[in-house]
Amino acid sequence: MSRHDEEYNLIRSLTRLAVGSLLLAGDELQRRLRQWEEETSQELAEQQRHAPPTAARQPTSTGKTKPVLPLGDKLADAGRHALIGLLFETQTRVASVLAVGQGRERKPVRRSPPSRPVLPINPLLAPLHRRFDMLVARGDKEVNALMTRGQSELERWVMLGRAEEQHSRKLVQTALQSSVETSIHHVVENEEVRELVQQQGSGLANEIVEEVRERAVSVDMLLERFIRLKLGRTPREQLPEPSDAVQRYVTRHRAPEA
Amino acid sequence: MPQRKPHGLLGHYAGFASRFVALLIDGLIISLSITAITLATFTVQALMQLVVLIEATGDWGFLSSLIKALADPAPALVVLMIGLFVIIYQIFFVATAGRTPGKAFMGLRVLTTDGRKLSPLRASIRLLGYLVSALPIFAGFFWVLLDDRRQAWHDKLAATYVVYAWAARPDEAFLSDEIQSLSTSPQEQ
């Protein structure tokens, strides 16, 4: 096989590996996500049974309710929730658009109310003023309606964002906890890991035994050398070789190495 | 320093320190065993005392004597039992496994000079030889330091060797340091 063919095959193998990993990971992720979603939904349902009621709208003097931010929401939190809510809202709308397809309804685009032109004060222009004021009032009304609608949309995004954020956090917590538990379970149940742990345990004991034995052998030599020196005998560097019979017996009944 | 062989000092004669540590370990095992037996004996004694009280109501012959002996054994009997335990311990392990638990820990083995396992008789002779080694202020034990084959007097009596049953090797760093310090000692100069 030429070098070029070899490289080509390697790339193909790597691609297969990447694609296979993505496919397997996707399948596994989909399966686990389904499981985690079920667990999370059950937990949230339990929590919502005991959850306090959400903040109501404050009534105004005209009788119309004045939209306010949800109780306890600071500006930063509201902004974050709004963005999250917008994200999910956009996702929902895109999904609905894709689902509807050709028969998608176009919502009318609201134009901004006209800005008031600066006109000179003239009695002859009073009708014009009145007409203009009527137009401005109508415009103001439309702008207020738009602002109210925008406010309600914003509030809806905030509420949606808050709920989805909670759900998302819970989902990730569940996912992490489940992953950690699975990993620990795998480690505990794995035979190879068990053997490794046992080897480590017995390795320490063997190490101690070996250390004691080696030191004892060293002291054997030293003591003998010392006594021989004291008695004026020549220290020996080599021990006498045992007989063949002894060597054979010991080799056959060799003690386990530490 | 002698070059390390692939099998180290496997089969070579074991030195004084290794054998002494093995003896200490055996002593510890025997002491713990005797302590456990003594505690059990005290319990039995307490029970026997109760039986003695019951026995005092009548004469049970030999059984009465036995119960009294168990309830309040003579010191000599206790010493005898301890001695028996030590003897059985030594003979049993050396005759069956070729080594006691202490020697097993240190990687030593007792065998005959012709390379065979000891029989119970030879193990008994070797044990009796302990007395011979111990009598003149344990000189027989210290003879290991002087003997070419590192035999004690009881080894010579029973024609046995005590050898390393593992690829024995010294801690070379420790050994070289100590030899160097011995070499530079004033006695050598």
Structural topology:
The complex is a heterodimer of chains A (258) and B (189).
Chain A: H1 3-49, E1 58-59, E2 65-66, H2 75-100, H3 126-189, H4 191-230, H5 244-252
Antiparallel strand pairs in A: 1-2
Helix pairs in contact in A: 1-3, 2-3
Chain B: H1 16-55, H2 62-71, H3 75-97, H4 101-105, E1 108-112, H5 120-134, H6 139-142, H7 153-158, E2 160-164, H8 172-183
Antiparallel strand pairs in B: 1-2
Helix pairs in contact in B: 1-2, 3-5
Structure write-up:
The complex is a heterodimer of chains A (258) and B (189). Chain A is built from 5 helices and 2 strands. With 258 residues, chain A is mostly helical. In chain A, helix 1 crosses helix 3 and helix 2 packs across helix 3. The longest helix of chain A is centred in the middle third of the chain and has 64 residues. Chain B has a two-stranded antiparallel ribbon. In chain B, helix 3 packs across helix 5.
Report the largest inter-chain contact. A-B, 43 and 47 residues
Strands of chain A, total number: 2
Task: Indicate the proportion of strand residues of chain B.
Answer: 5-15%
Number of strands of chain B: 2
